[in-house]
Specification:
Layout (H helix, E strand, L loop, with lengths): L11 E6 L4 E6 L23 H22 L3 H10 L1 H13 L13 H21 L12 H10 L5 H11 L4 H14 L2 H23 L5 H6 L17 H24 L4 H6 L2 H22 L4 H35 L5 H15 L3 H10 L2 H11 L5 H18 L8 H8 L8 H10 L17 E5 L5 E5 H14 L5 H10 L4 H9 L5 H4 L16 H4 L32 H6 L2 H10 L51 H5 L11 H22 L7 H18 L21 H12 L9 H10 L6
Antiparallel strand pairs: 1-2, 3-4
Helix pairs in contact: 1-4, 6-10, 8-10, 8-12, 10-13, 12-13, 12-15, 13-14, 13-15, 13-20, 15-17, 16-18
Amino acid sequence: MACAKVPLDELHVTEPFGPQGKERTLPALHPDRKEERCFLIFKPPPEEGTPALVEEFLEHAQFISDDLEWLLALPHDKFWCQVVFDESLQRCLDSYLRHAPRSLDPSGLSSSPAVADMQRNIHRSVFMVFLRMATHKESKENFITPAVFAEIIYNNYLFDIPKILDLCVLFGKGNSQLLHKMIENIFTQQPSYYGDLNETVPSIIQVFDSILQQCGIQSEDTAAGQPLKLNANRCQSAMTMSEEELADLVLYMCDTCTTIHSFLDIFPEACSTFKQHNFLSRLSSFYEMVVPDLEKAVKKRNFNKSLQEDMWRRVSHSRKKMVEIAHLLLQHSCLQPILEGSENVASFVEDLLQSFTAFLQEKRFLADYDEQFPIVDDISLLQQAFPHLDDTRTSYLLQGVESAWECVGKKRSFPSAISSASHSTGAKSKASRDSAASQKEGAGVLGVREELRGAEAITDTPCKGDNGAVCTVSAGELESLLYHIRELLPDLGEGFILACLEEYGYNSELVINNILEDKLSPSLDKLDRAMARPVKKELPSVLSTRSNVFNDDEFDVFHRDQLDMSRIWKGRRQGESVRATLNDKQHIEEQRARYQAYETVVDEIPITNEPSGDRDNAFSMDDYDDEYDDTYDINQIGANDLDEEDELLNRRPFTIPQVLRTGKKAQEEEEDEEEEEEKNEAVRKDHFVQDPAVLRERAEARRAAMQSRKGYRPPPASHVVGGPKGRGQAQETVLDRRRKEANKSRGANHSRRTMADRKRNKGMIPS
């Protein structure tokens, strides 16, 4: 039997042995005390929720769950015998750490509630087993000597650095304090783990170099320390590698960054070990080189839509985690000692400023870091904690931050660093860590900032922080928030979770806390907690909303299902010739009915003895006759006749005889007279259209008469052409030619011959 207050490593027990039941005394930790039990290897939940696969998983997982529950129910000595000497148990635990679904992994948990419950039970049991394994003292009676405990867990590989990293990733959310105590106890009882961690950091850096090499990028540190490989020129890039290789590379980077961040967040004491290996500089250079290439490859290449969204979400998640890793290293290795008032504050200040200065050449990384954790706030804290800070150096850093923002081409969603620093340089007073933290939360510069996102996010969701600052959440980050909350609260619907996230500025921790403590706002309490996610309304197609002058015509294929294909042809219409086209008088027949309405001219009107009331006769005497001349209808014929002797004088106005007329007045009166006579003659003649030849003759006669009255003599007819050559010319032709030769200067030649003779006479032109 066990004695009271004796450590397990010194305890001996007496137990019956063999078929005869003889008693024997053995140490409490002995292989013979191990129970024969085979622990199964864990298999992940099926991605496809088919009934056969679900049933197989549930049956297999039920065995594992029962074995773990049996293990946890064992007493202290039996538990440690099973843990130390049962290899199948260690293989089972290792398989769960390796195959358990991570936060960003797609799984079949949502397809079956039974699968989700079974996975949750195994998850809890595995965590409780590791927690009990990391505890060397369960009670005053059940404990192990710390030195022996350190040897047991280290020599039997119950814990190692990869296991600790996986524990932080799988169980860190919601169990950070327990994990911190567990890991702290392991490192405190066995300092050899610090040496293992010191050897692990170069391996992590080698992982980054491997990712760069697969992307066809060679870092400066690698190029300086290693010779160039023969196949270096044939390295593939992110744009040329296969789809599976690129997906594996993105998954590898995402898993690595998430694991490191979880470990440093839960166990900050490891930050100093990472900083000793210049991990911060290697991380920033890795970020600057690989992130733009992977983002470009994911966006430009043609992938399956679901795969592309998953890869983009993982790249964005990796970017965010890398920036947070850098902040954790600076926070715990530089900022925290400064705020706590350590002895050598100047060295920590110098180390922090040098780290920021090293970031200046990594423009993309610096802009993203400043977007999440503004450097101006850290410098403001330094100015309060260390009054002797060099203002020139800080202003140089802030100008470098502004330059990084400009080089990247991003826009700030909060005031710039320089303007913010100008308001904070005047107040340089020491403050505690709590007051500094409260100042960071309350300052308008800090607030809720825009989440880290890609160069061009696929879909952005607007949000509003607690201080009213507008930010954006990418589609990948929104899905990640939904998955995290549903993982803890699977009974809630996605629509209800989205409403809560919008209400609380997309802060998942605040949403979970208010839901668990039942402190939701009244507007959210009224909602159905199982509310599904609202379906996005599809926008109407462009074709249905287009407006065009050809809408609804006979060739509108967007609104008509059938068209007259005989009216459509390409090129010259087949089966028709030019002669057939010209002989086609169909258009004349189409216009005939229109012009038949104007056929109102009739040569003879038949008059029949019909009743006066019959109005059906189309050619009655009352109809309009277009041939009737109504010119003189308005004149009252005979009404103005005069019976006096001088009626001729009254009808014709008095005119002065031509002999008595004087000069121009007589000529004007005569012209007026002629014009009036011509008008009267034109009026008297009832010509609808006069002959143009006659009109031209009359105009020429009037022109000749007018010229003769003015004394103008037309030039005689010219006979310059003459007759044919060799037959002699008439005297008139000879005279006309001589006259033309003498009068050339008046025409277009402008005295050409005269001037030529003049120049020749003066010696200007050689003769």
